[in-house]
Task: structure prediction
Amino acid sequence: MKRIAWIATAFALSLTLAACNTWSGVKQDAKEAGTAAGKGIEKAGEKIQGVAK
Result:
């Protein structure tokens, strides 16, 4: 089971590095993903507040 996890992790990392060629690109992608996730959480919170009213 650990072997499969390591292979999956290595595969995901290689795809991530292939998508952006530099570490600054990786950091930028991570920042954008975090921003998008934050906006999604914010929208979900607004909808919940709207339903609760």
Summary: The chain has two helices and no strands. Helices lie at 2-19, 23-52.
